[in-house]
């Protein structure tokens, strides 16, 4: 699966010289992150306009009809930009990271309810925007990085920020959690 500056999202398969389907054509907002859910049957994209779109990966039905696949859900999760998201446990709960004018830059969403009621909780952190997210399922922790180099640890059970750490002097661009969830590692723009 590839996402591009022109907003296109295309799927390729080993052994095929061409794309097998185009989920989103060029001319849309720049894709900032794509992720598959744990089961691999869904994926989502977030873009520079603050939108998230979720798709089923059952692309094989599309060549038969000749139509391009459509997202089963699209809504604006941040009013300036969306930089990252993670599926939380089931595929119906999603956390997003981005930049919103009200500083609610980390948000928790329930995709099973209407978009107007889907915001479960918003965290006011990373005043200049959240750039990246990681999820630690065993401890139910959300780890976010921000533009000013801070890392925030959020307890999803209590829906509270636990810690705010100055990790870097430049934007946090990557977070990885080890399989035992004892450690996490951050990487910055520098």
From TrEMBL:
Repeat region (WD), residues: 165-190
Gene name of the encoded protein: Dmxl1_1
Pfam family, one: WD40
Organism: Pampusana beccarii (Western bronze ground-dove)
Keyword entries, A-Z: WD repeat
Name of the featured protein: DMXL1 protein
PROSITE patterns per the UniProt record, alphabetical: WD_REPEATS_2, WD_REPEATS_REGION
The organism's place on the tree of life at top rank: Eukaryota
GO cellular component: RAVE complex
GO-annotated biological processes: vacuolar acidification
């Amino acid at each position: 699966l590839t996402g591009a500056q022109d907003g296109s999202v295309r799927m390729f398969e080993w052994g095929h010289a061409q794309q097998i389907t185009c989920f989103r054509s060029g001319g849309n907002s720049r894709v900032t992150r794509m992720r598959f859910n744990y089961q691999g049957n869904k994926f989502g994209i977030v873009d520079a306009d603050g939108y998230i779109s979720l798709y089923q990966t059952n692309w094989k039905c599309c060549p038969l009809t000749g139509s391009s696949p459509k997202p089963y859900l699209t809504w604006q999760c941040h009013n300036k930009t969306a930089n990252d998201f993670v599926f939380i446990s089931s595929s119906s709960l999603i956390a997003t990271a981005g930049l919103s004018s009200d500083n609610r830059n980390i948000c928790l969403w329930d995709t099973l309810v209407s978009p107007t009621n889907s915001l479960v909780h918003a965290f006011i952190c990373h005043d200049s925007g959240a750039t990246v997210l990681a999820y630690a399922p065993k401890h139910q922790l959300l780890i976010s990085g921000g533009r000013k180099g801070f890392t925030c640890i959020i307890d999803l059970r209590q829906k509270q920020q636990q810690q705010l750490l100055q990790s870097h002097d430049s934007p946090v661009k990557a977070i990885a959690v080890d399989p035992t969830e004892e450690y996490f590692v951050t990487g910055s723009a520098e």
